[in-house]
Amino acid sequence: MAALATHRLLIDVPGRADGRPLDLRLAPGERWGVLGPNGAGKTTLLHTLAGLRPPRSGEVHLEGRALSGWRRRALARRLGVVFQERHDDFPATVRETALIGRHPFLSPWQQEGPEDHARAEAALSRLDLSHLAERELATLSGGERQRVSLATVLTQAPAVWLADEPTNHLDLHHQVAVMGLLAEQAEGGGAVMMCLHDLNLAARWCSHLLLLYPDGEACWGPAEAMLAPAALERLYDQALTRVEVDGAPVFVPRC
Ligand SMILES: Nc1ncnc2c1ncn2[C@@H]1O[C@H](COP(=O)(O)OP(=O)(O)OP(=O)(O)O)[C@@H](O)[C@H]1O
């Protein structure tokens, strides 16, 4: 059974024609990348898949059941979202924020227990954040904040990860570390879908790709099949040179 599937899904991008309905099937173990230029609808798609935004038409199914058939808490246990930018105004430390990942597993007034704390500490350590555990979120750099978002979802440990530009603000080392973390989640039986602007991270780390065009057209499939220079040049309206490095394709913009 697919971890996440869409049936004739049309995302609702205001003022845009319907485009091609999406019939996607994300199996456990797969790492999907969503590629497209600014405004193509990547975030809208991710929010629609998470049930945070209604589709124009069609359905999203999580583990064979329509999202509308899931209770919110049950959904929050199975599906995790890494948002693109999040500026939470309420004061909280890094550790308190990571612990939010355990809230779907606790009853309304239940305190986090040792197991919840252990998961949060492990996630903070995995994201190189242990030394910042007591820091207020508002004092963090952009990349540190991004790693806290990832640590919170790692603490949640969902079966399906929806990550909107997970490498946003990250330095090179942490970009590779985060892609490794997402690959590990997939290897452990999770399904991962991530919006990416970096074609080369997508080419190196994704098993499947969905190309979203600004007019609503789309194509998807195994990554090797989707990494055709002509399709990518049309996607970004940008000339590209494809080279091979260590057997993997690398795309360089041509000026
Ligand atoms: N509430 C809204 N009202 C009007 N237009 C909207 C609204 N929300 C989104 N849009 C438009 O829908 C389009 C798709 O937005 P979306 O954020 O999904 O794009 P994206 O592919 O994630 O872009 P980016 O790469 O810049 O993050 C954009 O043109 C955006 O301006």
UniProtKB/TrEMBL annotation:
Its domain of life reads Bacteria
- InterPro entries named in the record: AAA+_ATPase, ABC_transporter-like_ATP-bd, ABC_transporter-like_CS, P-loop_NTPase
Q: Does the keyword Cell membrane apply?
A: no
Q: What keywords appear on the UniProt entry?
A: ATP-binding, Nucleotide-binding, Translocase, Transport
Entries under SUPFAM superfamilies matching the protein: P-loop containing nucleoside triphosphate hydrolases
- Please tell me whether the keyword Zinc is annotated for this protein: no
GO MF = ATP binding; ATP hydrolysis activity
- Looking at the record, the residues that make up the ABC transporter domain are 4-239
Q: State the PANTHER family in the record.
A: HEMIN IMPORT ATP-BINDING PROTEIN HMUV
Its function, per the record, reads: Part of the ABC transporter complex HmuTUV involved in hemin import. Responsible for energy coupling to the transport system.
Please state what the protein is called. ABC transporter ATP-binding protein
